[in-house]
Design a protein that fits this description.
single chain, mainly beta, Pectate Lyase C-like, 23-stranded mixed beta sheet, elongated
Length: about 425
């Protein structure tokens, strides 16, 4: 039997909680921006500056030339536009996000968000939790993106995005896999975010962006990914395969972060700023890709990326073919390396493997090199009705066989 004092105490606690909730609702206000009402604000930021937690800011249709900053001390703030196509916020400050959110539990809904200035971010969500970006048009004039910086439980839902897509930054898994990101498009194509999944396939489609977080044993095949800040972003993921994809015209083509034992194979990676970028990731295999015409670098390894194997790739017409300052990665496999368009060595014995290493990075104390650079092999691009990729032809296989003959003569390099 429950004693009477306990019942009274529990009832009082429930009553106090209800009163607090009602007071919070009573204190909440609706602030109006634009329109013809007396006392309406003419600036969204002025309304934000006068808001407190729990308030709603309703914005009438119109063009608002300003940047919006929601500080940390304002939480549970909701901004709602009258109509997402005609309620426009146009950022006017260079190198600043049009919308920057630090307050928690804030909602931003039914706006067009754009910028007349150059910026790396159109929306920045920074060091906060439970922000909601719902049913907006987000339009960047370059690769600016939605930038989620050390935040958790962010909801990005039903948005039409033009520009760079989504970039996530955070040192822990919860900065990556606590979000709800669904039913968004990027440049008219699906923005695909998959978390905590295993044994899945993404294939034969066009995508604006693909983000895998905490995923295992998945495959991405025959996909065309273009026009994003990061074409394929893989974080905290292992044993996945990216194969026969066309990854082009992104800032980063493929980006691996805190990921291991993945295979990047038979892809055409071209016209990106960075073709393949690997950070804090180990034991990955990058092979048989055509990596060309990338503006800064074809393949960049950094920040504690160890024991990765890169071979049978064709590096051509990149500003810089490769970057790696760690001697623990291997730029060859079983005496076969990569083809480098700027390799100036010789092949005196005609076996298809260069007689001297290709130097990727060198100082007085250490050298990172491809010990077995391929002089040449035929590359076959599929016909127009297929997703472009790279097939290593029989001549490359012949090179691999002939390379074994060099093993004894080349042991000094190993």
């Amino acid at each position: 039997m429950i004693k009477r004092p306990f019942i009274i105490t529990a009832s009082l606690l429930m009553l106090v909680s209800a009163v607090v909730f009602l007071v919070h609702d009573v204190d909440a206000r609706i602030l109006y921006v634009g329109g013809a009402g007396d006392g309406n604000y003419t600036s969204i930021q002025r309304a934000v500056n006068n808001a407190t937690g729990g308030d709603v800011i309703y914005v009438y249709r119109g063009v608002y030339n300003e940047n919006i900053f929601i500080p940390k001390y304002i939480d549970y703030l909701k901004l709602v536009g009258e109509n997402r196509d005609t309620t426009v916020i146009n950022g006017v400050e260079e190198d600043c996000a049009t919308l920057e959110i630090h307050g928690g539990n804030c909602t931003f809904e039914n706006f067009t968000i754009t910028s007349s200035q150059k910026s790396t971010s159109i929306v920045t969500i920074s060091y906060t939790d439970r922000v909601k970006i719902i049913n907006n048009r987000i339009e960047a004039n370059n690769n600016a993106c939605i930038y989620m910086f050390f935040s958790t439980n962010v909801t990005i839902l039903n948005n039409s995005i033009t520009g760079g897509g989504i970039n996530i930054v955070g040192s822990s898994l919860e900065n990556w896999n606590t979000h709800t990101i669904s039913n968004n498009t990027l440049n008219g194509k699906e923005l695909c975010y998959i978390k905590d999944a295993t044994k899945f396939t993404i294939s034969s489609k066009e995508a604006g962006q693909i983000i895998l977080v905490n995923c295992t044993d998945g495959s991405i095949k025959n996909v065309d990914v273009t026009g994003s800040i990061i074409g394929i972003l893989m974080a905290f993921s292992s044993n996945n395969v990216v194969k026969k994809c066309h990854i082009h015209d992104n800032h980063y083509g493929i980006f691996l972060h805190e990921s291991r034992s993945n295979i990047i194979e038979d892809n055409l990676v071209e016209n990106n700023t960075y073709g393949i970028y690997v950070t804090h990731s180990s034991y990955n295999e990058i092979k048989s890709n055509l990596i060309r015409w990338n503006g800064n670098c074809g393949c960049w390894l950094c920040c504690g990326s160890l024991h990765n194997t890169i071979y049978l790739n064709n590096f051509t017409m990149n500003k810089k073919n490769a970057h790696d300052t760690v001697m623990i990665n291997r730029w060859y496999h079983e005496n076969v390396g990569n083809h480098w368009d700027d390799y100036n060595g010789t092949d005196d014995d005609g076996d298809g493997i260069g007689d001297s290493p290709y130097i990727i990075f060198a100082t007085e104390n250490k050298t990172v090199e491809d010990k077995y650079p391929i002089i040449s092999f035929e590359k076959v691009i599929p016909s127009d009705n297929q997703t472009p990729g790279v097939d290593i032809s029989l001549s490359a296989l012949a090179i691999a066989v002939m390379a074994v003959m060099k093993r004894l003569r080349r042991r000094k390099r190993r």
